[in-house]
Amino acid sequence: MSQVHAMSDDQVKSSSFPLTMPFSKEATMSNMSHSEALEKAKEIQIKADEEFAIEKSKLVRQETSSIDSTYEKKFKQAAMSQQIARSTVANKTRLRILSSRQELLDGLFEQARGRLGEATKDKKRYEEIVRNLILEGAYALNEDKIQVRARKADYDLVKKASEAAASEYKQNVKKNVQIDIDEANPQPEGSAGGLSIIGGSGKIDINNTFDERLKLLETEALPNIRTTLFGENQNRKFHD
User: Which of 3, 66, 115, 186 has the fewest CB atoms within 10 Å distance of its CB?
Assistant: First the structure.
């Protein structure tokens, strides 16, 4: 029977297996794998951070652009609303001014219309006015025979004025004109005065009554009256 003997220390040293060398290689490989993993993880993290930063910057730009666009749109809307409001106020103010001016002008012409009859009170002056009105019509018609239509109350005065007008017409034009009163068609008694001159066999009527002359004055002289009362219109580009 064989016997088991304990090994001496020298025997142990001389017969030991090389255990340390394989362990060191495995540890080194493990350390290398760990380092590579850390490096890879670091690279991934860096790339992720870069992508996050890019995406964040992109989102910020988009939001900033959206905010700017919204602000610009609201600013334009506010500016447009303010411009419309300003224009509306200016138009209303202008219309009120024009309305007030027109009321003033209407009042002036109404006062003038109410005073038209005063011109007939001074008979001498009124006869001169009628003579000039007849002459104006006679020159315009240039006919040998004309008629005048006047108020019945003015017939005597009109006859005298017609004779004077015919005499002056002959002196200036070197030919006679017959002036008759159309008693069949007198001017209304409510008329302020003046007369109509009829020619062309009754087809032409030159209305020289005071009422009609005032209407012409309202139309033709109105621009000058406006300028006299209110001054030049600064918005008017062309002037007569």
Answer: 3
pTM above 0.70, yes or no: no
φ/ψ of residue 239, rounded to 5: -125, 145
Q: Do residues 183 and 138 touch, judged by C-beta distance below 8 A?
A: no
Question: Nearest 10 degrees: CA dihedral of 58, 59, 62, 66?
Answer: -170
Instruction: Write the pLDDT tens digit of every residue in 162-209.
Output: 999 999 999 999 999 999 999 999 999 888 999 999 999 889 999 999
**So what's the pLDDT on residue 17?**
45
Distance CA(123)–CA(144), nearest Å, equals 28
Query: How would DSSP label each residue in 157-193?
Result: HHHHHHHHHHHHHHHHHSS--EEEE-TTSPPPTTS-S
Report the C-alpha gap between 189 and 7 in whole angstroms.
168
Higher pLDDT, 237 or 123: 123
Gyration radius from the chain CA atoms: 57
- Does residue 141 or residue 107 have the better pLDDT? 141
> What is the b/e burial string over 170-191, where b = at least 16 CB atoms within 10 angstroms of the residue's CB?
eeeeeeebebebbeeebbeeeb
Distances (CA, A) of 23 to 16, 18, 30, 167: 15, 10, 10, 154
The neighbouring-strand residues paired with 148 are 181, 197
Distance CA 98, CA 199 (A): 41
Query: What pLDDT score was predicted for residue 239?
Result: 54
